[in-house]
Design goal:
Blueprint lengths: L8 H18 L3 H7 L4 H9 L18 H14 L1 H16 L5 H9 L4 E4 L15 E5 L2 E12 L6 E8 L7 E8 L5 E5 L10 E12 L3 E2 L5 H37 L1 E2 L2 E2 L4 H29 L5 H22 L13 H10 L8 H12 L10
Parallel strand pairs: 1-4, 2-4
Antiparallel strand pairs: 2-3, 3-7, 4-5, 5-8, 6-7, 9-10
Helix pairs in contact: 1-4, 4-5, 4-7, 5-7, 7-8, 7-9, 7-10, 8-9, 9-10, 9-11
Bound molecules: flavin-adenine dinucleotide.
Length: 382
């Protein structure tokens, strides 16, 4: 996206690099990966060799130690070419950065694009309500034994190592939520694909854990730290989903702008009609507003400030206006916009996926009600 924001020269050159890579290497294969509807190892290796899976990682392990704004720039530019690849990149970068205990070898391998991580948190009755999980880990000598089921897990089937949120008993008797590292090949772990409408190459799956035994050393971040790990990551990942949506929406608005300049009907380019040109400039305005919100939240995160309010605003707004923009542009291409041969059809399907991941649009508004109006108005359990 052409920038109207005051990015540093380093950020601008990183943007130009990612844009070039995504247009040359990802965009031409995007349709093929969508049709394959499974985790594209080829894409992941391309992302790894382009240095797009180690953006936040420590230099000691081969990472680049860039800031969160850089990750946002990468996600925005990747999404203009392929939303699944943008999702893969932000999930791998943020899971590896915010969750401790993956192990140095796993991280090195992930940065190259050889290993893939996943976060298994959602369950049938515990999507928005992450505390309602039923998956349980029971201590047994030096091990934990996990039983339960997860759904809607990105990167599944296919991921190599999972962070699994589990209910655990404590010495005091009160159950807490812990996060356990579980290699996907551990005995008792099984998975199956959940067919999606869009973002099909990023892959979504269900998992079962039947008496899965992991050592106590697999506990990530300490006893009862599962929610704290998830929430710390949310403040950044909730800026990534709107930037992915805005990157794709901007690409569609630009293509539509080009198209309406040249498509002649009734002897005139259709862009001469204000019912066509006004929505285009309104969407461009909203897209810029959405980017400002998302980058503001990332700048705050980079400064070490609590950006939970700003991230929630960025997410509901950026995704909502992006879906509207793509939806409104599709008919400007006439019936062609609806055809599989045209990228707008895939982008509309892909962008729909972003409204759920990391908390829905309604949940973002509930968080804002809690912070801006008062906890008693949020309607959540206290
Ligand atoms: C593409 C994609 C990727 C995902 N990746 C992962 C992943 O990697 N790992 C993982 O664990 N999960 C993942 N998820 C799951 C995601 O986190 C959940 O879908 C999300 O949290 C919502 O949960 P749910 O779908 O169970 O909806 P529910 O929680 O059942 O909610 C149903 C509907 O009710 C609304 N709602 C709920 N409570 C209220 C309320 N109080 N007021 C108003 N509306 C309300 C919600 O907004 C939603 O629209 C992914 C989902 C998708 C689609």
């Amino acid at each position: 996206m052409d920038s109207m924001l005051p990015f540093s020269a380093e950020h601008e050159s990183f943007r130009a690099y990612v844009r070039g890579f995504a247009a040359a290497e990802l965009q031409p294969r995007s349709r093929q990966w969508d049709e394959g509807a499974e985790l594209p190892r080829e894409a992941i290796r391309l992302l790894g060799s382009a240095g797009l899976l180690n953006i936040l990682g420590p230099k000691s392990l081969g990472g680049q130690e860039r800031d969160y704004v850089s990750l946002g720039i990468a996600v925005e530019e990747l999404a203009a070419a392929d939303i699944s690849c943008a999702q893969i990149a932000w999930i791998q970068n943020t899971l590896s950065h915010f969750f401790p205990g993956w192990g140095d070898e796993t991280l090195r391998s992930l940065y190259r694009g050889d290993a893939v991580l996943a976060l298994a948190m959602s369950e049938e009755g515990a999507g928005s309500d992450v505390s309602a999980i039923q998956t349980e880990a029971v201590a047994d000598g030096d091990d934990y034994i996990i039983n339960g089921a997860k759904i809607h897990v990105s990167m599944m089937p296919g991921a190599d190592v999972l962070a699994v949120s589990c209910k655990m008993a404590t010495a005091g008797g009160k159950p807490v939520i812990g996060m356990l590292r579980v290699p996907a090949t551990t005995a008792g772990v099984s998975s199956e694909i959940m067919e999606q409408m869009g973002a099909r190459a990023h892959s979504l799956g269900a998992l079962r854990f039947d008496n899965v035994r992991v050592p106590k050393a697999a506990l990530m971040g300490g006893e009862g730290q599962g929610k704290a790990l998830m929430y710390a990551r949310f403040n950044v990942s909730r800026c990534m989903s709107p930037l992915a949506a805005l990157g794709a929406a901007n690409a569609v608005v630009k293509e539509a702008t080009q198209f309406v300049r040249t498509k002649v009907i009734f002897g005139k380019p259709i862009g001469i009609n204000q019912s066509i040109s006004f929505p285009l400039v309104e969407h461009q305005t909203r897209i810029e507003a959405g980017r400002l919100l998302a980058y503001r939240a990332l700048w705050l995160n980079d400064a070490g400030a609590d950006a939970s309010t700003e991230a929630a605003m960025a997410k509901w707004f950026g995704i909502t206006i992006s879906i509207q923009a793509i939806n409104d542009c599709l008919p400007m291409f006439g019936a062609n916009g609806y055809l599989k041969d045209w990228s707008v059809e895939q982008r509309l399907r892909d962008v729909m996926s972003l409204q759920f991941t990391g908390g829905t649009i309604n949940i973002m508004k509930i968080l804002l009600v809690r912070q801006l109006i008062g906890a008693e108005f949020a309607g959540l359990r206290s």
